[in-house]
Design goal:
By secondary structure, the chain is α/β, with parallel strands linked by helices. The protein contains 8 helices and 5 strands; from the N terminus they run E-E-H-H-E-E-E-H-H-H-H-H-H. It starts with a strand and ends with a helix.
Length: 222
């Protein structure tokens, strides 16, 4: 069974829906209690709440990576069965993505980019800014909750901060498959678009041009 809650505390403009499995409810309540111990995190959540009908879903079990922000649906998805620390880290990162002006739907249209690499590089560059903010926010939460969260080692913290470098971060996401995920998405979208136009061209003698979908409709990004 699933439970739906709404974040409506001080600073929230529009209520934010939170969905979790019943068995995870206590952990999610703990997560938000830890999250809201940081004024900077509360501010980030308030920024997100400027957008109405946002949903945070902690029940996903079929994600390729630990989380995702879907700008067109206004939804944050977090993989379930992660540790409290990983769930919190992932939520903060996707929250930063949601608040990142470089990652709004209008800037992520495939038609804005000439190549798959240009598309993937743009997203990863934007997400790198989110990553740096997310690390800063998470370390602040750690400093305020020493006993409630597993503390990373000095080596782990150093590794995170090494990823603050642009080239280091890009190399990392290319190695872990994150970059390729966006490349494949772009290629598949272009193939779908091209096959659509080939099909329409073959029936152009009988097709009504006014009935054809626009490019935005093809990509599902109205």
């Amino acid at each position: 069974m699933k439970t739906q809650l709404f974040l409506t505390n001080h600073g929230i403009i529009h209520p934010i829906a939170v969905i979790c499995d019943d068995k995870d409810l206590d952990n999610i309540i703990t997560l938000f209690s830890l999250f809201q111990s940081s004024p900077a995190c509360e501010k980030a959540l308030s920024v997100l709440s400027n957008t109405p009908n946002v949903k945070i879903d902690f029940t996903r079990d079929n994600l390729k990576f630990q989380g995702q922000w879907l700008a067109d649906k206004k939804e944050i998805h977090i993989k379930n069965n992660l540790s409290l620390e990983k769930t919190l880290q992932t939520f903060i990162f996707e929250l930063c993505n949601a608040n990142n002006p470089a990652l709004v739907s209008s800037k992520l249209k495939y038609s804005n980019f000439l190549t798959a690499d240009a598309y993937a590089t743009y997203i990863e560059t934007a997400e790198h800014q989110s990553f740096k903010m997310a690390v800063t926010l998470y370390l602040e939460i750690l400093s305020r909750n020493n006993d409630a969260l597993k503390q990373p080692s000095d080596i782990e913290v150093k590794g995170l901060k090494m990823l603050f470098g642009d080239e280091t971060y890009l190399a990392y996401v290319k190695q872990n498959g994150h970059y390729d995920y966006y490349v494949k998405g772009y290629i598949q979208a272009m193939q779908k678009r091209n096959s659509f136009f080939v099909e329409q061209q073959s029936t152009s003698l009988v097709a009504d041009p006014s009935s054809l979908p626009t490019e935005n409709e093809i990509f599902g990004m109205k």
